[in-house]
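W.,

You were right to be curious about this one. When I first looked at the sequence I had no strong expectations either way, so I just let the prediction run and decided to look at it fresh. Below is the sequence, 319 residues in total, followed by the output.
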Amino acid sequence: MDFRRVTHKRSAFTLIELLVVIAIIATLVAILLPAVQQAREAARRSTCKNNLKQLALAMHNYHDVNNTLPLFGDDRWDADTFSWYARILPYIEQSALYDTIDFRFRPNGGGASSVNRQARLALIPTMVCPSENSVVGEEGAQDWGTRRLSYSANMGNSNIGQENPNNWDGVWTYNFEGAPFRMGQCKRFADIIDGLSNTLLIAEVPINQNSNGWQGGYATPTLAAGAGFTTYLSPNTTASIDSGRRCWGANDDFSGRKLLCHLNNNWRSATFASMSMHQGGVQTALCDGSVRFVSENISLQEWREASTSQGGKVTNFNN
C-alpha cells in the first residue's frame, strides 16, 4: 500500500479573472442604478402629488366652512404677514400648531412677534416635496428665521404685488385679473368663471438651500411676501427672475439651479416662477382639487391663461 501523502493544489482567482468580475459588477450597477433612481424619484413625485392633493382639499374644506378661499395675506409690513399657509393649518391636521398663532402680530421680527416663532419654523411634511430639502432661512436669527417650503398659491400673470412697477422686460404683459388669490382679499370659487378644472390653484416653487441667506422671498409661504407664484415666466424657466427686495447671493443655491436675478429693493416686484426638481415639468393643483403634472414645454400663453379665472380660455395641460 502506498502511503505517500497526496497533496491537492488550491485554486485561486487570477488577477484577470478578478478584474473581469469587478467589471461585470460595475456594469450591473451602472445598468441598475438609473432604474433605482427612477423608482425613487417616481415615489417622491407621487408623494409630492399627494401633498398637493391634500392642500387643494384643505382649500376646499376651508371654503366650505368660510364661503371664501383663505386670505392670501395682508400687504402691511411689506407683506410679512401670515399667509394662506397659516389659515389652512386646521384642515391639514395641524390644529395644535394653528392654536399657537397670534394673528395680532406678524410672524417674524423682534418683540412681540416672537410668540409666533413655532409656526414660523414648523416643518410640516405636507408642505415639502421630498425631491427637495426644507431649510430654515436665516437659521441663526432668533426673530427672523423662517421655514422654506415647497408650495405656493397662484397670483396670476403678474408679480407678487400684482402691480406694474417696472416694465423690466419692455413688454408690459402683466395681467392678474381673475387670479384665485390677491393680496389683502378673499376670493370665492364662484369667482372662477373659466371653470375650476381650467385654473391653477397651487404649484411647486424651488427652495433656497442656503440657510444663512434671506435674499428674496422664494419658498417662504409662511409669509405673504413669499407665498405666491406667478405665471409671468414659464415653468422651470431659465430666464431672469425678479427676486423682490434683494437678489440672490453667491452662496444661494436652489437645489443645484442657479437663478438669475434682475431687480432689487421692491418687495412686490417678485415674479416667482413655478419650478420643481421633477424632470420635464412641475406638479400643480387645480381649483377643482385635481393634480396635474404640467410640462415645462407648455406655451407661455397657455400657462398664463391657466392662472386667470376670467379669461374665457380652456387650457390644454397636456402640452
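Here's what jumped out at me. Helices lie at 15-66, 84-87, 95-98, 117-121, 300-307. And, maybe more interesting for your project: The radius of gyration is 25 Å.

Coffee later to discuss?

I.
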